[in-house]
What does this fold into?
Amino acid sequence: MPIEFRATLWSPMEGKGWTFATMPKSASEKLPARGRVAIKGTINGFSFRTSAFPDGKGSHNIQINGGMREGGKVTVGKTASFSIEPASDAMKVEVPADLQAALKKSAKASAQWESITDKARAEWAGWITSAKREETRASRVAKAIERLGKGDKRPSD
It folds into this structure.
């Protein structure tokens, strides 16, 4: 179900670069999360995809680029009509079988795995599958389990 509202565009840099629209709290409350939310919708009938970010005051700000302003025929300081809905930006992560098996043997590593983002999971999977030798791959799986168990979120931590 689309979330519909009107909001005025503003810019922290006097109209240069990105501009924003702060969602009314009643509209923001309909989003599925209080954090960053990928959204799709229309601004004055012009289709877009962007993100809504928490504004620290109980609502969300929508990022609006020049193409969106032009397409929606709206400028900084003017009010626009929005119709938005959450858009999935979740990544599909294929967990290597050897990592999957190792995660089943470690409750701590498994709990950490479940708490990290899909992007972080993709980094772990990529780090493991990029190994050229089986010994290296096995070593990386063991290191991943150890490090996840200690609370690391990414291989680069």
